[in-house]
Each structure stands twice: as structure tokens, then as C-alpha cells.
Amino acid sequence: MNLYVISGVAGMTGNELARQILNGNKGAIIGFDNFFCSSMDTIADIAENENFDFFQYDINSAAQMAEIQYLVNRKKSDFDKVYYINCAAVVHTEYFYHVNTTYDTNVNGMRVFLQQAIAVGADAYINCSTSEVYSMQSFAEGGVKESDFLLMANAEHSQRTSYATGKLLTEFFMKDAVDNGLIKGCSIRFANVYSKNERFAKHILPHIVTSLTETGKVVLLENSKKNKRTFLHNNDSCASVLRLLETPQALDGTVYNVATDEEISIIDLVYLIGEKLGIGKPEIIFEGYRESDPERRVLNTEKIRSRTGWKPEISLSEGIDMIIQYRKENNK
Ligand SMILES: NC(=O)c1ccc[n+]([C@@H]2O[C@H](COP(=O)([O-])OP(=O)(O)OC[C@H]3O[C@@H](n4cnc5c(N)ncnc54)[C@H](O)[C@@H]3O)[C@@H](O)[C@H]2O)c1
Q1: Is 240 near ligand 1, meaning CB less than 6 Å away?
Q2: What pLDDT, in 10s, does the model give residues 156-170?
Q3: How far from the centroid of its chain's Cα atoms is residue 209's Cα?
Q4: Are 126 and 244 in contact (CB under 8 A)?
Q5: Over the Cα atoms of the chain, what is R_g?
Q6: Using a 6 Å cutoff on CB, does residue 65 contact ligand 1?
Q7: pTM of the entire predicted model
Q8: What domains are there in the chain, each with its CATH number?
Q9: Would you state the pLDDT for residue 254?
Q10: Is 10 near ligand 1, meaning CB less than 6 Å away?
């Protein structure tokens, strides 16, 4: 049995990760979240589990983080391994432009949590980074690789890149800690993760499903006339975290792309969802434009596949069916 210490545990990645750990009898969890972008609802089904200790805590509160550290130190001898997984972050598109909160939580919070993991003698630390770091060069033949050089938009172009820049810095903290023999771990660059019950209405999948269900049409940014994306189901993103933790030789401080290679244009995505909702070819209205938004983002995932055997299991079509089914069952 292992002890998993998870920040941002009520978020889309954290709550599914907690479910996979508890349902798979992998161990116990100490998790916290300040509900910046989530609520008790997302963990309601696991909140009473005796192996889940939840705290409404903020990663930026030194006193609250000291309490988590105290608890881990008190419990750790009951477990084989102690793993830290950092999911707390100011994530969504709207907040990408909030430079100060992005820095406090995503960069400083990640570093404080890493220092705690090292101080308690944790076996590994997983740093959730992002495919946003590929910024303006997020497509290459066969997908962009972890080792590719980056061409980033900067403050001359858009404050949006502050999110990616902050996450990139966390990858350096992770590498430095491993290179200095302080802990094992790695960073993961996720691309466009979604879930059946995603709460953030402005994200593209919930936005399209909600708009088509309620009005039969959808408003998209002008960028969507050209943009293509891949989408990764959160069951698969969380499985990659657990697979990496189970592969100690992969925890070498480096970066792993985690994505699917099932690319679809945003327009075809609308038509696919429309077809599944029985709407036929829905009306699309184009309004607004987003600076520094790459037309394509395709990641090469050979590194994680060959080192850990992970691969995505849920196709986009199955994932959309899961969203529609969930909404029907829950009257959303
Ligand atoms: N969703 C994606 O497409 C995607 C893509 C790339 C990377 N990521 C990364 O994966 C990780 C998890 O993202 P997610 O999709 O689960 O996002 P999410 O917003 O659903 O979850 C993040 C959680 O962190 C919590 N949080 C925010 N500030 C906090 C603070 N100060 N203290 C404690 N908790 C705080 C939020 O309330 C939320 O529950 C993040 O590091 C994110 O940057 C996500």
C-alpha cells in the first residue's frame, strides 16, 4: 500500500486520480484543494472513503502546508512508498492571462510542494506541466517531441503565455531535484484533457455540447475556422500518472508528452457532436479572435509509450458519448 499526497485533488485530474487509486486498492490519499475551480461535488462519491483524508487547504498557505507535512510524517511508516502528485494549478483558458495568480500557485506552489516531498523523504513527485509550452511551434511531422526546441509567444504578443512559461519553469525545478539526487520524479505535458463531467463551461467540449443541446447552434472564435486539436480523456491522463509511478526507471526528472494522436478540426468536432445529438449539421457563428493560439497541437508520445507501455484507451467518439450519457443521467 502506498500513500499518495495530491494537491488540487478536487480538480478534473485530481478527483479521477483519487478514484483510480481508491478503486484499484493502490493505497491511501491525503488530498487538498482550495476549491478555486472545483467543489465538494466533484469528490462527493469518494469523500467518505476511509482511505481518503481531504482538507480544504491552499497550496499558498505555509501554515496549511505545514499541517499536511506533519500528517504525512505521522503516517508514512505505515506505507511502502510515498508519492506526491501536484495537480493544483490555475489552469483554465480564462486564467492563463492572470500572471500573478499563475505565478503564485503554478510556480511557487509547485516548488513549495516539491520541497515538502523532499523533506518528508517521498519516493517520487509527479509534476503536471502542459503542452501549452509548445506555444507557437506545437506541430511537427509525427508530432512535437519533448526534446524539441521551443518557440514561445512572449509578452509582446500575449499575456496568455505566462501560464506556459510558468509551467516550463516547474519542469526545471523537477529536473534539478532529480539530478541532485533529492527525489525521483518527472513532468507530464498533458494536451487538452477533458472529462465526462467537466465543470468549466468555456472549454471547447462542454461549450459545444451545451450550446448545441440548448440552442442547436454554437458560437466559436474566428481561430476555429482553422484550428485542429487532439483531446485526451481524463481516465487516460490519470492512468499515465499511475503508470509512470509504477515505472521507477522512467522517473528520471525529464518530461513526458501525454496525449492522443487523434486530431480533429474544431469544425468537424461540432459536426461530430451535432450528429451524436441528432442535430445534423448545426449552425456555427464565428465571433472574436484569440492571439497566439497555434493552429495545430500534435504531440509525439513515443517516449511514454516505449518506457511505460501507456497508451490512450478512450477514443474521442467514445469520450463524447460518455459526456452525453453523463448529462442525460444527471439532467445537465
Ligand atoms: N485540463 C487540461 O487540459 C490540462 C492540460 C495540460 C496540463 N494540465 C495540468 O494538469 C493539472 C491538473 O489540471 P486539471 O485539468 O485537473 O485542472 P482543474 O482546474 O480541474 O484542477 C486544478 C485544481 O487545483 C485547485 N487549485 C487551484 N489553486 C489552488 C491552490 N492555491 N491551492 C489548492 N488547490 C488549488 C483547483 O480548485 C482545482 O480543483 C494542472 O497542473 C494543469 O496545469 C491540464
Answers
A1: no
A2: 998 888 999 999 999
A3: 21
A4: yes
A5: 19
A6: no
A7: 0.96
A8: 2-195+232-260+298-312 (3.40.50.720)
A9: 98
A10: yes
- State whether the beta carbon of 236 lies less than 6 angstroms from ligand 1: no
Among all chains, which residue has been given the C-alpha cell 522517473? 251
Q: Could you tell me which of 20, 10, 7 has the C-alpha nearest to residue 197?
A: 10
Tell me if 124 CB under 6 Å of ligand 1. Answer: no
Question: Residue 68's closest CA among 107, 29, 124, 38?
Answer: 29
Pairing state between β 124-130 and 81-86: parallel
Residues 278-314: tens digit of each pLDDT: 998 899 999 999 888 889 999 999 999 999 999 999 9
Atom of ligand 1 at shortest range from CA of 128: 41
Q: Which atom of ligand 1 is nearest to the CA of 58?
A: 32
Sign of CA dihedral 24, 29, 35, 41: positive
Question: In angstroms, what is the span from residue 58 Cα to ligand 1's centroid?
Answer: 13
Q: Is the CB of 8 under 6 A from ligand 1?
A: yes
- Match 465571433 to its residue by C-alpha cell: 287
| CA 198 to ligand 1: nearest atom | 20
| Residues 58-82, mean pLDDT to the nearest whole number | 98
Residue 5 has what DSSP assignment?
E
**Cell digits of residue 317:** 467518439
- Name the band, by pLDDT with cuts 50, 70 and 90, for residue 198: confident
**Containing H/E element for 255?**
strand 252-258
